[in-house]
Amino acid sequence: MSELRNDRLLRALLREPVDATPVWMMRQAGRYLPEYRATREKAGDFMTLCKTPELACEVTLQPVDRLGVDAAILFSDILTVPDAMGLGLYFEEGEGPRFRRPVRSRREVETLPLPDPERELGYVMDAVRTIRRELAGRVPLIGFSGSPWTLATYMVEGGSAKNFALAKGMMFDRPATMHALLDKLARAVTDYLNAQIAAGAQAVMIFDTWGGVLAPDDYLEFSLAYMQRIVEGLAREAEGRRVPVILFTKGGGQWLDAMAETGCDALGLDWTTDIGEARRRVGDRVALQGNLDPCVLYASPETIRKKVAKVLESYGPGSGHVFNLGHGIHPTVDPDHAAAMIEAVHELSRPFHQ
């Protein structure tokens, strides 16, 4: 593996000194980039793009080449694990992901296979190896997975949901069935992330997109407990350095103290939590990632610069901050506005690291 020339991200995630705050964006390889749209057209459909390592590599590298971000994130989908369990993932135009075979009974949970990451998910590992080779040490590669609770919502609902009636119905009425599903998913996600690390991912992130829809007690029992189990089961060193783990619960600002106790290295924040207040709460236990409102990128470059400055000032001096949006970049954002944000972070953050 090539020596890493820009390790700002890995250093910041471990709260080590950096020369400037590193920055990357969730969904940075995506539809807002014309070059992504061209590659997607070449692939024919989204899943072919995910399952063709050379094309997944191509789109992973596009924002690195164009925007100068401090990390690449593996181009994939959070639903690869349930897909590998045989649920029949497909995408409806305008409807989002759907499963042909949702999981709604104890028997269906018990018969779910645990996928072998190098077999059923081998295309992801091939993509990781290809991306690492093509990055040639320019920036680190982040691997990721959905959290067990988030994956479970899609598996039980059969796709996206508005009020999570089926998933929450199972959780409230048949908690043992939901726990059995979450236990199986925690094992699958641990294997999946460890395989990504073995293939070359230098940091990993767990996306708990739907943890924020839960009441506090339910969040701790049905979401955070399983993320903690994954954190405890992950390989934390590869290629002679630590592999940082980032947890991100959208809408999870009220649980930062509990999240910081899981043993992870960093917490992602959405834009509804003040990052300075979050830093005071977690102290030096974890780094923080975030948390500009993605809609700021619709504003002028001058406004973007002011909003970037505000986030940096709120976090304050010292390391332990990875700049990011509070959720994924929107598909209709002008790429030049994303570039303006990245440039502003690199320029305006330097005084905070002297």
Explain what you see:
There is one protein chain. The chain is of the alpha/beta class and 354 residues long. Helix content is 47%, strand content 13%. The strands form three sheets. It has a seven-stranded parallel sheet. α8 crosses α9 (165-173) and α10 (175-199) packs parallel to α11. The model has no long low-confidence stretch (mean pLDDT 97).
Question: Topology, please?
Answer:
Blueprint lengths: L7 H6 L20 H10 L2 H6 L1 H15 L4 E2 L6 H5 L4 E4 L3 E4 L6 H5 L11 H14 L5 E6 L1 H10 L7 H9 L1 H25 L3 E6 L7 H18 L3 E2 L2 E2 L2 E5 L6 H5 L5 E3 L6 H8 L4 E6 L8 H15 L5 E5 L9 H14 L6
Parallel strand pairs: 1-4, 4-5, 5-8, 8-9, 9-10, 10-11
Antiparallel strand pairs: 2-3, 6-7
Task: Supply the number of helical segments.
Answer: 15
The total count of strands amounts to 11
Residue runs with pLDDT of under 50 for 5 or more positions: none
User: Approximately how much helix is present in the residues?
Assistant: 40-55%
- The CATH C-level name of the domain at 46-290 is Alpha Beta
The largest sheet, given as strand count, sense and whether it forms a barrel, is: 7 strands, parallel
**CATH-defined fold name of the domain at 46-290:** TIM Barrel
Strand fraction equals: 5-15%
Structure class: alpha/beta
Question: What overall geometry do the principal axes of the alpha carbons give?
Answer: globular
CATH architecture label of the domain at 46-290: Alpha-Beta Barrel
Task: Give the ordered list of helices and strands.
Answer: HHHHEHEEHHEHHHEHEEEHEHEHEH
Determine the mean pLDDT. 97
Strand order of the largest sheet: 1-4-5-8-9-10-11
* C-alpha termini separation: 31 Å
